[in-house]
Specification:
single chain, alpha/beta, Rossmann fold, Dimethylsulfoxide Reductase, domain 2, 2 domains, 9-stranded mixed β-sheet, 5-stranded parallel β-sheet, 19% strand, disordered N terminus
Length: 434
């Protein structure tokens, strides 16, 4: 059984982790209990099915570096990666959402030194949110702990946490007790707005067609403002009830997912939701809007780039003044300009459109990943790295921007992504070639 103590030692010692941080999604659940014996994970508690799979994923990891399709050692693989980047005039550094904050810092140094482009998955998943914010739509925000304590009305809009973030409902929104919701879910109003009805408990479900979210949000805004709404709207009675619920809550939260940000009319959808939240706040309610981040440290990458460059993703250092032009300096627009790619903890060959994949495969690829991927199968160099939060420690930022320390749960011979990136950076910088 898992006890209440925690011990460290060699591979033959039983070790207990009572507050391990799960490195699967951006919830970064920090209450996971793990028992390790003989350097094998024997028991895991308080993790969702995805978290359990992530903690046990070391059993199916990539074991050896690969150079041009042939197994190699680390020294030769790193030397080949350095040669590729030395010869590159404008490399792309991409991924990083599944890397430690320390590794992200080194990757940024490489991008700056090589005058390349650094981009992360945020440029595909949440780029339109940043576009709306740049258009000066106000952004009301809060830590998840405040939301858990104070929110009495919860909206999941275009997001199904049961599928994407299974413990989100239990830890941060619907089910936990809070200062203003002492009975948990029975003290909260829960609304789901989506194409398909989600599985979690809610009092209201508003079905929408793809691209219809903006109309719903704009109608709710007009109702809350007391402005006239077309009587021909066959959903007016339903939306009036929802507007009344929104208006009556002293503190509410709208969690937005990729159903809002990646479908038809996506830019208009998020602008309309931001406007709705602004209207509610100006009416005296406290409302926040919260994007449901996916990868466990995508927020760390965003915060690093914001701190160091002023931009959240897609920063091009090739010009005298760095550039940020979503659609041009992001992965979807820059592939014809770059002459090498360093991919860290991502699989763009599996996720990008076919035309963009063909462009990516025209340049030499260096891939750092704990696992074999479709991108790795096409790479010139593949370097296995330790799984952060399982085989190596590091800092990650929760979806609300809170930094958390990830433990090394099992001992491993594999170097961390930070260590490998540092060696690549040192090899490039020693060359004297920029």
């Amino acid at each position: 059984m898992i006890g209440s103590s925690r011990a460290r030692g060699d591979n033959n010692t039983e070790r207990i982790f009572n507050a391990a941080v799960c490195p699967f999604c951006a919830c970064l659940c920090d209450d996971v209990v793990i028992r390790v014996k003989n350097n094998e994970i024997e028991e895991i508690r308080n993790a969702c099915r995805f978290g359990v799979a992530k903690f046990r994923s070391y059993q199916k990891r990539l074991k050896r570096p690969i150079v041009d399709g042939t197994p190699a050692n680390y020294e030769d693989a790193i030397a080949r990666a350095v040669d590729i980047l030395r010869e590159s005039h404008k490399p792309l550094i991409y991924g990083l959402s599944n890397s430690s904050y320390e590794a992200q810092q080194v990757a940024l140094r490489i991008a700056k030194y090589k005058r390349g482009v650094i981009d992360i998955s945020e440029s595909i998943c949440h780029n339109l949110l940043y576009a709306a914010l740049r258009a000066r739509y106000p952004f009301y925000y809060a830590l998840l702990d405040e939301i858990r304590e104070k929110a009495t009305l919860i909206v999941y809009w275009g997001s199904n946490p049961v599928v994407s973030h299974p413990r989100h409902l239990a830890r941060y929104s619907v089910y936990p007790t809070g200062r203003y919701a002492m009975k948990g879910v029975t003290d909260r109003t829960v609304i789901a707005i989506d194409v398909i009805e989600p599985e979690f408990k809610k009092q209201w479900f508003v079905p929408v067609m793809p691209g219809e979210d903006a109309m719903i949000a704009n109608t709710l805004t007009r109702l809350i403002k007391g402005e006239p709404v077309s009587a021909s709207n066959h959903r007016i009675a339903e939306l009036k009830s929802i507007a009344d619920k929104l208006r009556s809550a002293s503190y509410g939260i709208i969690f937005t997912g990729l159903g809002v940000l990646s479908g038809a009319n996506a830019y208009e959808n998020i602008k309309a939701i931001l406007s709705l939240v602004d209207t509610l706040n100006k009416k005296g309610n406290r409302y926040v809007v919260f994007p449901m981040k996916g990868h466990y440290n995508v927020m760390g990458a965003v915060l690093l780039l914001m701190r160091e460059t002023g931009y959240p993703f897609g920063v091009d250092f090739s010009a005298p003044d760095k550039r940020f032009e979503p659609g041009r300096t992001t992965v979807m627009g820059v592939l014809k300009e770059v002459d090498a790619a360093l991919v860290v903890g991502a699989d763009p060959v599996a996720s990008l459109p076919a035309a963009k994949v063909r462009e990516l495969l025209n340049v030499p690829l260096v891939v750092l990943d704990p696992f074999m991927s479709l991108t790795a199968s096409f790479a010139s160099v593949v370097l296995p790295v330790a799984i952060t939060g399982v085989e190596s420690e590091g800092i990650a930022y929760r979806m609300d921007g809170l930094p958390l320390k990830l433990d090394r749960i099992i001992n491993s011979e594999y170097p961390s992504d930070k260590v490998i990136l540092e060696q690549i950076y040192e090899g490039c910088s020693d060359s004297g070639v920029k």
